[in-house]
Amino acid sequence: MLSFGPAFKRPEAALLALYRELPVATVSDVLGPGHVLSACIKPLRPGMRLLGAAYTLKLPATDNLGMHAAVKDAEPGDVILADQEGAALGAPVGEIMALAAQHKGLAGIVLNGVVRDIDKLRASSWPIFATGAFAQQCRKDGPAWLKLPMSCAGVLVSPGDILLGDDDGVVVIPIARAEVIALQVIQKLEKEAQRMAAIRAGVLSPAWLEESMQRAGIINY
């Protein structure tokens, strides 16, 4: 059985554009804990960058019928976020699946699970993030759950949330807060640029460090 959730709202192009150059690490700083997918989910090769609306998908450990259905149902600009709970019993994505998703106009795939044909997938600039590679193919029997809120790799995700990925991993930005978060990230980057300029000028410790050390308590042996 394939269980589909209702249609969901995607972020506007102007909102996505705010995140085009933003680093995952700084976005994570502003959002706080609980928004970055598990560290085992990595880009297939350095330099891959991912941005789009989350199309959520829950898959069994050894079946990829839902992945085929997601590629068919998703809209251009979506990122399929597929959760196999980190299982490495079958790879739901390989060269053919990735090519179909790319030609559909999807913005990438994030998989809490494994891929295969990894050398071919790494040769492309189209972004895929996964936990690793495993040659075993999947069955095509189901079940699967599509376009429903889910927990994936330690993060609660709703369809339409923004997924941003770079070499530091993948962060999930709740769509309802996305504009405010982007502006706060831009402000934080400006402050970080000022701090780095101060370091280059010889001010190596931040202004808050001494007070924080005293508050934590200091014992000298």
Question: What would you say this structure looks like, in words?
Answer:
- The protein folds into two domains: 2-175, Glucose Oxidase, domain 1 (3-Layer(bba) Sandwich), CATH 3.50.30.40; 184-216, no CATH class.
- Helices cover 32% and strands 23% of the residues.
- The protein has seven helices and 13 strands.
- The protein has helices at residues 13-18, 24-31, 65-73, 95-104, 118-123, 178-200, 209-216; strands at residues 2-4, 42-43, 50-58, 78-83, 108-112, 114-115, 128-130, 132-133, 144-146, 150-152, 155-157, 162-166, 169-173.
- The strands form three sheets. Strands 1, 2, 3, 4, 5, 7, 9, 12 and 13 form a nine-stranded mixed sheet that branches. A two-stranded parallel sheet has the order 6-8.
- Helix 2 crosses helix 6 (178-200) and helix 3 runs parallel beside helix 4.
N→C terminal distance: 66 Å
Oligomer: single chain
User: How many beta-strand elements?
Assistant: 13
Number of separate helices: 7
Structural class: alpha/beta
Rg over C-alpha atoms, rounded to the nearest angstrom: 20 Å
Q: Helix coverage percent of residues?
A: 25-40%
CATH architecture of the largest domain: 3-Layer(bba) Sandwich
**Average pLDDT across residues?**
95
Number of domains: 2
- Biggest sheet statistics: 9 strands, mixed
Can you say what the CATH homologous superfamily of the largest domain is? Ribonuclease E inhibitor RraA/RraA-like
The outline comes out as elongated
Q: Can you identify the CATH class of the largest domain?
A: Alpha Beta
Per DSSP, what share of the residues sits in E-state strands of 2 or more residues?
A: 15-25%
Provide the low-confidence segments as ranges.
Answer: none
Order of helices and strands: EHHEEHEHEEHEEEEEEEHH
CATH topology assignment of the largest domain:
Glucose Oxidase, domain 1
